[in-house]
Amino acid sequence: MGKNKEEKIQPEVAEAAEKTKAAGLEGVKLDVSVRPIQPKNNLYAFATVTINDSFAVENICVRKGEKGLYVNMPSVPDGHGNYNDVFKPITADARNLIVSRVLEAYAAAIEKMREMVDASRSATEKSSLTGALKDNAEKVKKQPKKTAGKSEQSL
Fold it and tell me: Residue-wise pLDDT tens for the chain (155 aa)?
């Protein structure tokens, strides 16, 4: 995920957090885990939200549309080509709270993945650095030896 995408997530998260605080929902405990996936069409991740250590909502989707990232609640097909949400926050403020926390967790998961990729690149570079050092050691061995200095000649 590039820096521009990350910049788009942060204002959305901050705005939703402000709305949540104003609605008086800051006492609700939400534990959110996000599992980013290889993007399939517009699907980028799945999330699970645990509410007040009592209820777990699984299969919340993080998707990307024309206006950026958005969150879909879990849903099931109705047989007529439509989908009905299985879990529905009743108020807009409750929905904003869940959406903001899911997007925060998604941004954190992407950052963690980015750090892991950077660390693995660093490890790869170190192994090639070892190879470069070995090559340079061979070059040093092949160089002509310097003649002895005055102090060694007198011995």
Answer: 444 444 455 565 566 556 556 566 777 889 999 999 999 999 999 999 999 999 999 999 999 999 999 999 999 999 999 999 999 999 998 999 999 999 999 999 999 999 888 887 776 655 566 667 777 777 777 777 766 655 555 55
Angle between the 3-23 and 92-142 helix axes, to the nearest 10 degrees?
150
Cα separation, 13 vs 17, whole angstroms: 6
CATH number of 3-117: 3.30.1120.40
- The span from the CA of 29 to the CA of 43, in Å, is 26
Contact 57, 51 (CB under 8 A): yes
| pTM for the model | 0.64
Identity of the residue numbered 94: A
CA distance 61 to 75: 10
Helices (H), 3-91: 3-23
What gap in Å lies between CA 133 and CA 139, rounded to an integer? 10
